[in-house]
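Case study.
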Amino acid sequence: MTTASEIDKKPAVTALRHKDLLGIADLSPEEIGLVLDTAEAMKEVGTRPIKKVPALRGRTVVNLFFEPSTRTRTSFEIAEKRLSADTLNIAIGTSSVVKGETLADTALNLEAMSPDMIVLRHSSSGACHFLSRICRSAIINAGDGMHEHPTQALLDAFTIRERKKQLKGLKVTIIGDLLHSRVLRSNIQLLTKMGAEVWVCGPPTLIPTDIRRFGVQVSSKVDEAIVDADVIMLLRIQLERMEGAYFPSLREYFRVFGMTEERLRLARPDVMIMHPGPMNRGVEIASEVADGPYSVILDQVANGVAVRMAVLYLLAGGAEHEDAA
Amino acid sequence: MKTLLKGGRVVDPANGIDGVHDVLIDGDRIERVGRNLPSNGATIVEIPAGLVVCPGFIDMHVHLREPGQEHKETVATGTAAAVAGGFTAVACMPNTAPVNDNANVTSLILAKAAEAGLARVYPIGAVSKGSHGELLADIAELKQAGCVAITDDGHPVKTALLLRRALEYAGMFGMPVIEHCEDPTLKGDGVAHEGFHAASLGLRGIPGAAEALGAERGVLLSELTGSAFHVAHMSARASLRAVRKGKEAGVRVTCEVAPHHFTLTDEALGTPIPYDTNMKMNPPLREAADRDAMIGGIVDGTVDVIATDHAPHHYDEKKVEFDRAPFGIVGLETAVSLSLDRLVHAGLIRLSRVVELLSVNPARILGVEGGSLAPGARADITVLAPDLKVRVQASTMQSRSKNTPFDGWELRGGVAGTIVGGRALFVNPEARVSL
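After joint prediction, the assembly is written out as follows.
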């Protein structure tokens, strides 16, 4: 039994009191802090010779991916295995969706086999909200359409915090296809909640309506957006966007928005260069920058595992779950 | 056989009546309306105080889905929904399967309507064969079979030239062209109003300008041809501006607004249920400035008609990812309550204006009987219970589909009864009236 005095002694939050992780929109700054703190402990697990803890032993996690993904799916799978969960990967090519089954039926059939968590990647915005309404399992959003990619934002925040100690007060500039990016939507919510100054930059054709209402600065002038930036995050430019007449050519995109060593001099001397991947070298980012000293792109990938371990662990009940077990 | 509706408040703006009157019905026609009419052997029906007797409501924009999509709705279930919602007549859109572009389909719909024997059905024919936007449909044939207007609804008429020709040709028969106003390239693969809420939910946007371009095009071509043009399910403030300018210039343009567009905004996409597919329709729920403009147009008279765009879909079709769900919601059984609650009780318009919007004007625009309780008029009557507390319940709706965003809403004002051709086809047990 918990008494009032015990509650007073505890930190503000010790678990994610949500059934699901659908988006950064649902997390408080304290909960974001908890995930990042927990991820630090999880990162240590990855440095051991035997990279495994029993936290999710006996739990079943289904990675349900309706879109091709190498990085995110692998990262989740490694995270699950390091927590000793039983994992199962379902990719669209091998699922019954190709036979015309609805997402609801696919999910309910999986549910009938009593998984504890479903990690969902889907091309439709809101697919995770939809599943969360019909499933008992915890739903973890691994990217839904153009909506959110919360674990990416969390791993980005973790990577920034590792270097800069805190997010508050940093100038973070995000450049690229803002309109179609779920990474953008998760990141601007997380960064503004944690007190960073966020600038977003891209051609006007690729800027979502009323994006200022998220509390960010908007510019189509790269040189203005990156002045004194502590962090520059580049978003992937999809080649098919040219067909939608969003911009004339990749060459011209690189000329106006591409991150080059020369341009980088406008940012802070200790600027971090980030990219959620997969990169288009020579389009949104020059190879010299991607491979250069400011780049933390591979650190992001490494931290992804620790952050996803933290999310899985905390959604499963965190320390409370272990006490009970 | 005669019936005397005794003691209700009669609101009949076409004849300048608003007060306690009796209505004498002889068979399927109105004999007379007046104070303290003698019964002379007529069956007396007491209308309790507080109820309102009006000319029958006409919903000029519904999808009855038959033939071809009977799992969503049929003429029988759709007209049952109509009378339960206070409508004595509906006009049904031609985007059935096959499309209503010939007399066979029109006749089938009318035969089904006669068989059901509920609300009157006025079929609307296609502008183009198959609604493909290439060749004009046989419009004289459609007219003769019973169509009252033409439209390629679901989509805009494909080209400005074809719309011009349709206006000119249909004008010969006095039929209006009803247009789903939309620039298809600007709409693209959008699924929600282009604004902050779609941006934040990651939904592809449809700007208000996509609709307004269609409205502007229609107003210009109506001016060019001198024919009647009607803007269907108007939602964007820029479209209203186009209609208003057109009317000021004497163009024969009219427009309708659906209850969801004067009630809801795009904020409903995210709350209370994020990505609720019952909040998905085309045109989409727009931002507050557009919703307020629609109300403004209803108040100032620019808007002629309230029509539901009743678009039933089976729950399987709506129980999918938001961007894969079909556009559209049912509306027949909520329109009257929403109009009374949101417009009349909100103090924006009077009851007589509601009757204009739901009865007088649709009858005039479609050129059909109705909209009046004058002696000799058809005894199509809607009885309102303006103060009735209504709780919307999707599960008990008459429509075969239950895709309403208003399930569970509590509204003030409802339908007490619906009389078609002198026959009471719907009586609301809650309203304590025995028609």
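Observations recorded in class. The CA atoms of residues 269 and 430 of chain B lie 33 Å apart. The interface with chain A takes residues 194-196, 198-205, 273-275, 316, 319-324 of chain B (CB under 8 Å). We will return to this complex in the next lecture.
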